[in-house]
Amino acid sequence: MSPTISSFIRTIPDYPKPGVLFRDITGLLEDPRGLRMAVDLIVHRYIDRPIDIVAGIEARGFIFGTAVAYKLGVGFVPLRKAGKLPGDVIGVDYELEYGSDRMEMHIDAVPAGAEVLLIDDLIATGGTAKAGIELIEQADGQVHEACFVIDLPDLGGADQLRACGCDVFALCAFSGH
């Protein structure tokens, strides 16, 4: 029997704080079968779609995003934490569970009208992904779909993105948080 994406992901209870079930993708990244499977499944979904650019959310979205961009034959745009990019940037402030943060990208990274595939490793509450969508739209890009390796549906992030009009795809889902 072939392994599934979820079989490469381990759950670590009470990390980073009590009550949290942390979904650790390092097993997926370390195993060449798992990494290849994840990238190939994502590429297969988008190979015949009008994707102009892949945007990855720092940091684990970079891992999957660059591989997918390479396979699709398109460029990659890093969406980074504030102060990490040289040159002129645009940014979005967003709320986290315990505070706020800022996401930025180069001002000229997404051409007006570009179809963008947004990628990250996991969607939980959706705050970071919503900020990524807002940033891409600020540059007059269009988010084709938001793609994740893992969805935590109990936290409602994917539903929030869908409610904002963004299609969502995930390779696997885990209940609980």
Q: What is this structure's SSE topology?
A:
Elements (H helix, E strand, L loop, with lengths): L9 E4 L7 E4 L1 H5 L1 H15 L6 E5 L2 H13 L2 E7 L7 E8 L2 E8 L8 E9 L3 H12 L3 E10 L5 H7 L4 E6 L4
Helix pairs in contact: 2-3
List keywords for this structure.
177 residues; alpha/beta; Rossmann fold; seven-stranded mixed β-sheet; two-stranded antiparallel ribbon; 5 helices; 29% helix
List the uncertain runs: none
Based on helices, strands and strand pairing, what is the structural class? alpha/beta
Could you state the order of secondary-structure elements as H and E? EEHHEHEEEEHEHE
Number of helices: 5
Strand elements, count? 9
Distance between the termini: 28 Å
- Mean pLDDT score: 96
Strand content: 25-35%
CA-based shape: globular
Query: Would you give the CATH topology of the domain at 51-172?
Result: Rossmann fold
Describe the largest sheet. Answer: 7 strands, mixed
What is the CATH domain class of the domain at 51-172?
Alpha Beta
Query: What is the spatial order of strands in the main beta sheet?
Result: 5-6-4-3-7-8-9
- Please tell me the CATH architecture of the domain at 51-172 by its name: 3-Layer(aba) Sandwich
Quaternary organization: single chain
How many whole angstroms does the radius of gyration measure? 16 Å
Proportion of helical residues: 25-40%
